[in-house]
Amino acid sequence: SLKNAVWKETDLAKDYTLGGHDLVVLSYVVGELSTEALTAAVSQAWEAASQMLVVIEPGTPHGFERIRVVREQLIKAGGYLVAPCPHQDKCPMAGGDWCHFAKRLERSSLHMAVKDVSVGYEDEKYSYVVASKTPVVLPEARILRHPQHHSGHTEFVLCTKSGLEKRTLSRRHKELYKRAKKLEWGDVLE
After folding, report:
1. Measured between alpha carbons, how far is 4 from 1 in angstroms, rounded to an integer?
2. Which has the higher per-residue pLDDT, 1 or 42?
3. Does the model's pTM come out above 0.90?
4. Each residue of 68-92: pLDDT tens digit?
5. What is the pLDDT of residue 15?
6. Terminal CA-to-CA distance of the chain, rounded, Å?
7. Is 54 in contact with 30 (CB distance < 8 Å)?
8. Contact partners, residue 128, CB within 8 Å, separation at least 6
9. Most buried one in 7, 67, 142, 161, CB count within 10 A?
């Protein structure tokens, strides 16, 4: 389906039209907008998305704060959260904490030369929200930090339907523990 995807470049701070699309993605752009332009851009993108809207920002406190604003706007607009949140309630992240994830990216030799680095990869941290026009079944919990694997048990920091939670799974949890040993930051815990 990506072969038929339409990629559009536009200035989201100005008047524009997106038309109608199954999926609309705003990636690393809303952090550059004023509050008014952000609200307008998300409204336009939500209206243009017949099925889903994905918004991605850098995994920084500022990037996450923008995602939190977008999340609230989409819920008020009747959107159903798909990820990463396992609930539609108020975001439980508070204080200096923020919700973000990481993906290891390989660097090309050119990229390494431009950045003047010797490591062949970088860990890109990002915050995101995905909303759907139709209800979806949400997971029980999302893993918010690197799981701490110990001998005989694994500790998780989770976002759950009840808020933030620390959970320990041990060998006595049998099948769940076997699956849990393979889970990573950002995965769903069922």
Report:
1. 6
2. 42
3. no
4. 999 999 999 999 999 999 999 999 9
5. 66
6. 29
7. no
8. 54, 55, 56, 57, 67, 83, 84, 101
9. 67
